[in-house]
Structures are given as structure tokens and as C-alpha cells.
Design goal:
506 residues; alpha+beta; 8 helices; 16% helix; 15-stranded mixed sheet; Cathepsin D, subunit A, domain 1; 2 domains
């Protein structure tokens, strides 16, 4: 059935930010987004000082014997599917560009990587869902600087630079709370343009000649046509709010000399966040910088978006015994060893997609990384829905349309397809099973709520996946499909672990 004019008006009324984002996206697609730099770049000319409100923080760096957890807080509601999809499209374009561009930065990162020291304990932190802000990402509370000040950062396994909006913020998006002020922190330290660590980041264009040891290292990091951050590459103390697994008592952990971006020019659909905390595979990511303390493993467990808003998700650094002892824990290997892989991404090798327990007829080359770096599949916490290269998505969509007979299809519903009218249905939905079969034999089976999304108040459910053109495009397993699974990234043994969990109980 065709959507009525009233429904279209209702969608415009309920999701005005989507239409604004779509218009903004169209404008940026007309040409490459550019940033104008002043003749004399003065990245550190901040004069503002903010009062400290975190005097209770303390360092527990030397006492990490007991397991510790970081929590991911929940907020109610799903937010606009349209906003989530607009944000995802920016990320898709950026991921494709990273796959296509192989720069000297990637080689420099490998040269500067250090061998980690033995880990000391386990760290767990709280994550908060961003759905109340119209965001599909998860947020982590981090205290930055000395004295420490609170900032909410997006958790992102699809990128590796940690960055925060910094004063003076010359071109920035709206965030909750004040910008970070480097002049208000005694632990802030610029990385010199002559420091070898400066080679880990891409310089903004036009590049400035490095003339002295005192000259700051400038960076440019992009996520899409209108999503990017530019500023000073620097060192700072990050303090994370922890909860011990014994007794649930809260304490704080300081991590000194964290490499991060102090962003003075920032654009994008970041929905109230102060910046990003990167968890990618590169040496700049927060997880890589914590390897000397917690080793090569981290994991998270994301509560579903329909859970009680007081329930939090968890981010765990270090080896977690709970997931290692889970009877349904599965592993699949990360794809490594190919020169055309982007070192930031966590690639997995798909063999087949299963709908209703049956493998779909998808060309084998759909899942391969091509010689130019395009294609392949990554696991990404910063992308909301899952995106599959067009041949795979077409086969998935057609399989569901063929097998779903119990509910009338809603034709031409905006963005998502297929969609079904389930108004008045009280019993569990009768929908085919969905799973991913990996090359090494591991199977990831998903519950219905991880691959169909309910849109209120229309009483419509839609397949929570989209196509990614062209046929050789990168495929992404997003965080919507990862809800209520404990996901473990083990870079030492180069494998991804996943186990079904009620994440509210972790």
C-alpha cells in the first residue's frame, strides 16, 4: 500500500532533522567540503578558564588487581531512523574513501607501534545510548585534563583518533556542555611537528612547513563529506569512571599522555557529543594506547534500545572471564595479512548470508576485499544499521519478501525496505531467522529484534539493513545488530568473539 499524504506530513513533523540532514547532505555532495584556514594558524589561543567540578577524582593506576568495568548508560526511545541513516551514510562514504586511499600515515603507524607491556587487571566503563539525542551511537563519559572536566564521547570501533572540540572553537557543531579548554589544564601538552608521533596523523591542507621544535602538530581527520575534525595533535590525561565487579563501587582511573586531537574546526552529525573515542585497530585508538595496561583485548555488551533507561551497557578493557566461559561463545578470525586492508578497521570474512536457515545465492566476490582496497566487511560500533554491498542486500531483501506471508507489506515506505504492517499483532512476530556464516565456519544468528526495527506509532516493522552501492562496496555490521551480544575484540589472537547475553545483567 502507498503511504498517504497524511503519513508523509506526519513523518516530516516527527523527523524534521532528517529532512534538514538530507538537504545538508545534498549541499555537501555538490562539492568536496572545505575548511578555510586563517593566514596565521593560532590553534592554541584560548583565554577561557572553566572552574573545576571534579575534585573527587583520583588515580588508581598502580592498583588494578581486581576486575573493573566501564558502564554504558541507557536513554529511552530509538530516535529518528532518518537521522540515524543520514549519519550512517556519511560514515559509509568515509569508510569507502579510507579503503581507497593508502597514505604514508598508515606506514608510519606501523613503524611507530610499540610492543605492549604485560597487562595489569581489567577495566570496565559505562556507556550511554545517544538515541534521546537522535543518535544511534553509544556514549562514554570521560574526564579530560587536570583538573579533570567531564565530556561525553562517541564510542567508535570504526575510527582510531580520539578527539574533542576545543576552545577556541572556530567552526564547531553543537554539543552538550562547554568545550574543552587546553589552557585550563596543566597536563595538556602539544605534540611538536618534529615529534615522530606527528607522522601518525594526516596534516590539513595546505600543509605548513615545520620550522621549529615548538611548532604544534596539526591534524585533519574526516568521516564523510561534512564530518571532520581539524586542530592540534596533543597529549592529555584521560580519567575514566570505573565500577569494580566486586560490590559495584565506583572509582576513577587516570591514563596519562593519551594522544588525542584538540579540534578547533569540527563538522558533522555528532548529536550533542563533545567528540569521539576511537577503538579501531590503529595505534592512535584508546584501546591501542591502553594495551600496556590491559593487553590486546576489549569487549562491550550493548543493551537493547527497548530496555529500562536506567540500565547501562558495558565497555571492558582486558580479558573478561564472563565471556570466555560463556557456553555459546563463537569466534571468527579477523581478516589480516593483505596489503590493501585499512589498518583502522576490524575486517571479518563472510561466506554466506542465511535467511530462514538457507544460504542465499550471493556472488562470492561480493565479500572479498579488492586490489584497490574496496569491499570486504567490517564490524563497527559507530554505524547504527547494517549495510551490505548491493548484490547481498538485494538477495536478502528478496528472500524476506518471498518468505514473509503473515503480514501485509507496506510499499514505498521511506528509506527502509521491506516493511510490514503489524498493527494489532500481540503474539511474537512470525519472521524468518537471519544469520551470518563466516568463512571459518562460525555462525552468528540474530534474534528478530536485531534485524527488524519497529517504527512507532505506525505499527510498522522494517528490515534494519540497507544496501551499499556499488557491487564492490564495503559491508558493515552495525551496532543495531550487535544489541544483547557480548562482543570481544582480541587483536593478539586476531579474532572476534560474540555470545548472546542479556547485556543488562553484565
Amino acid at each position: 500500500m502507498m503511504p498517504s499524504k497524511g503519513l508523509i506530513f506526519l513523518l516530516f513533523f516527527l523527523f524534521p532533522s532528517f529532512f534538514q540532514a538530507a538537504l545538508q547532505q545534498r549541499v555537501f555532495n555538490s562539492s568536496d567540503a572545505g575548511i578555510e584556514f586563517p593566514t596565521h594558524m593560532s590553534f592554541n589561543a584560548a583565554d577561557c578558564a572553566f572552574p573545576s567540578d571534579s575534585s573527587a577524582l583520583h588515580s588508581s593506576k598502580s592498583e588494578l588487581g581486581a576486575p573493573m568495568k566501564l558502564h554504558l548508560k541507557r536513554t529511552p526511545g530509538l530516535g529518528s531512523v532518518f537521522d540515524l541513516q543520514a549519519r550512517d551514510l556519511h560514515r559509509l562514504r568515509a569508510h569507502r574513501k579510507r579503503s581507497a586511499e593508502k597514505t604514508a600515515v598508515q606506514q608510519n603507524r606501523k613503524l611507530l607501534e610499540k610492543k605492549p607491556q604485560p597487562p595489569a587487571g581489567q577495566l570496565m566503563a559505562t556507556l550511554e545510548s545517544g538515541v534521546s539525542l537522535g543518535s544511534g551511537e553509544y556514549f562514554i563519559d570521560v574526564f579530560v585534563g587536570t583538573p579533570p572536566r567531564h565530556f561525553s564521547l562517541i564510542l567508535d570501533t570504526g575510527s582510531d583518533l580520539n578527539w574533542i572540540q576545543c576552545a577556541p572553537c572556530l567552526d564547531c557543531f553543537d554539543q552538550n556542555g562547554p568545550h574543552y579548554d587546553p589552557k585550563a589544564s596543566t597536563s595538556f601538552e602539544n605534540v611538536s611537528c618534529r615529534d615522530p608521533r606527528c607522522r601518525l596523523v594526516t596534516a590539513p591542507e595546505p600543509q605548513q612547513q615545520c620550522q621549529s621544535q615548538r611548532q604544534a602538530c596539526h591534524y585533519f581527520y574526516w568521516y564523510g563529506d561534512s564530518s571532520n575534525s581539524t586542530g592540534d595533535f596533543a597529549l592529555e590525561t584521560f580519567t575514566v569512571n570505573l565500577t569494580t565487579s566486586v560490590g559495584g563501587e565506583s572509582e576513577f582511573m587516570k591514563v596519562e599522555n593519551v594522544m588525542f586531537g584538540c579540534g578547533h574546526w569540527n563538522r558533522g552529525l555528532f548529536h550533542g557529543a563533545a567528540g569521539l573515542l576511537g577503538l579501531g585497530r590503529g595505534p592512535l585508538s584508546f584501546s591501542s594506547q591502553l594495551q600496556s595496561l590491559y593487553g590486546h583485548s576489549f569487549s562491550y555488551c550493548l543493551v537493547d534500545r527497548n530496555s529500562d533507561p536506567s540500565v547501562s551497557s558495558k565497555l571492558i578493557f582486558g580479558e573478561d572471564r564472563d565471556i570466555l566461559s560463556h557456553p555459546e561463545l563463537n569466534y571468527t578470525a579477523f581478516l589480516t595479512g593483505k596489503q590493501n586492508l585499512v589498518d583502522t578497521f576490524y575486517y571479518v570474512q563472510i561466506k554466506a548470508i542465511l535467511v530462514g536457515g538457507q544460504p542465499l545465492n550471493i556472488p562470492e566476490e561480493t565479500w572479498h576485499v579488492s586490489s584497490d582496497g574496496s569491499g570486504g566487511t567490517i564490524v563497527d560500533s559507530g554505524t547504527t544499521l547494517s549495510y551490505f554491498a548491493e548484490p547481498a542486500y538485494k538477495a536478502i531483501k528478496e528472500a524476506f519478501m518471498e518468505k514473509v506471508k503473515a503480514y501485509p507489506r507496506v510499499v514505498d515506505f521511506p528509506l527502509l525496505d521491506p516493511c510490514y504492517n503489524v498493527s494489532g499483532v500481540k503474539t511474537p512476530l512470525e519472521l524468518p531467522e537471519f544469520g551470518i556464516l563466516f568463512e571459518d565456519g562460525a555462525v552468528w544468528n540474530f534474534p528478530i529484534e536485531n534485524y527488524f526495527i519497529r517504527l512507532e506509532p505506525e505499527q510498522v516493522v522494517c528490515l534494519a539493513m540497507m544496501g551499499s552501492a556499488p557491487a564492490s562496496a564495503l559491508s558493515i555490521i552495525g551496532n543495531y545488530q550487535q544489541q544483547n551480544f557480548h562482543i570481544m575484540y582480541d587483536t593478539k589472537n586476531s579474532k572476534l568473539g560474540f555470545a548472546p547475553r542479556r547485556c543488562a545483567e553484565v
